[in-house]
């Protein structure tokens, strides 16, 4: 659980840098997420619960080195997030 919190903080920092607007991570338990009531909230809550309850398995089967062996141009999150920054800042997200 601590690892996911750390990664979430890191992702928020990358989005803050790319969007030039503060982005903060807000931990929402899967049980609360399911209660949001929008279409798909149950499914997303289940996904978040799986990631939380089976973190070692979930992260273990997603090996970045193996993925890069299949696609050498694969970008890490920070480099990937910088690609669409113009679209993000010009789109709906940037208008808020």
Spatial gap, N to C terminus? 31 Å
> How many domain modules?
1
Total E-strand runs: 0
Main sheet, how many strands, which sense, barrel?
none
Q: Assign a percent range to the helix content.
A: 55-70%
User: Helix/strand-derived class?
Assistant: mainly alpha
The portion of residues forming beta strands comes to: under 5%
Short description:
The chain is built from seven helices and no strands. It is an all-alpha fold and 96 residues long.
Q: How would you describe this structure to a colleague?
A:
This protein has one domain. It is 64% helix and 0% strand. It contains 7 helices and no strands. The C terminus is likely disordered.
Q: What are the main properties of this structure?
A:
96 residues; mainly alpha; 7 helices; 64% helix; disordered C terminus
Write the layout of secondary structure elements.
Elements (H helix, E strand, L loop, with lengths): L1 H18 L10 H5 L6 H13 L1 H6 L3 H7 L6 H6 L2 H6 L6
């Amino acid at each position: 659980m601590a690892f996911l919190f750390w990664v979430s903080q890191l992702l928020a920092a990358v989005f803050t840098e790319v969007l030039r607007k503060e982005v903060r991570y807000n931990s929402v338990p899967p049980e609360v997420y399911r209660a949001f009531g929008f279409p798909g909230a149950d499914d997303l809550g289940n996904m978040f619960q799986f990631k939380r309850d089976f973190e070692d398995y979930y992260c273990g089967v997603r090996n970045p080195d193996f993925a890069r062996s299949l696609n050498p141009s694969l970008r890490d999150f920070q480099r990937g997030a910088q690609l669409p920054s113009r679209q993000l800042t010009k789109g709906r997200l940037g208008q808020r």
